[in-house]
From TrEMBL:
Coiled-coil regions, chain positions: none
Name of the protein: Protein-tyrosine-phosphatase
The keyword Nucleotidyltransferase appears for this protein: no
Record key words, sorted: Arsenical resistance
Species assigned in the record: Malikia granosa
Pfam families to which the protein is assigned, alphabetical: LMWPc
């Protein structure tokens, strides 16, 4: 049990269909009451549907996928948006885009992961790529969650998030 409000983390990727969705679902699955994860994209999927293999990979790992949808980062810039403590880009394209001004001036970090949607092969090979990315994210998130985050200020949080990226 924690005396601190959860740390809100927003994961960004271009289409918010695979990597950012994976990160959101994993952190919400393993983060307990300490974290609340969200995801968004610069150019979200027009049908708001995450990539089917992202959902399949998560479900195969026992991670709840209900409520996951592809959404624009604009949802997190308005006055009624949840206050973010940390914004993490998980794809190199989104990292290179000029980000909006986030309410509350959260810490910012970049964690580069390969795009499983660019993989080629049959269903099993593609699913394996999604699972590999999911596993790497899970490892990085476990390391990140082990930090004493409740006592960190924004700049230290940003520094630690960037260090976690460098370790994997």
């Amino acid at each position: 049990m924690t005396d601190h409000p959860p740390i809100n983390v927003l994961f960004l990727c271009s289409h918010n269909a695979a990597r950012s969705i994976l990160a959101e679902a994993i952190l919400n699955h393993v983060g307990g009451a300490r974290f609340r994860a969200f995801s968004a994209g610069t150019e979200p999927a027009s049908d708001q549907q995450p990539h089917p293999l992202a959902l399949e990979a998560l479900q195969s790992a026992g991670v709840d996928t209900s409520g996951l949808r592809s959404k624009s980062w604009d949802e997190f810039t308005g006055p009624d948006a949840p206050h973010m403590d940390l914004v993490i880009t998980v794809c190199d394209d989104a990292h290179g885009e000029p980000c909006p001004l986030w309410p509350g001036h959260p810490a910012i970090a970049h964690w580069s992961f390969p795009d499983p949607m660019q993989a080629q092969g049959d269903h099993e090979a593609l699913l394996e790529m999604f699972k590999q990315v999911m596993h790497r994210m899970h490892q990085r998130l476990e390391l990140f969650m082990s930090l004493p985050l409740a006592s960190l200020d924004r700049l230290v949080l940003e520094s630690h998030a960037q260090e976690v990226a460098a370790q994997h």
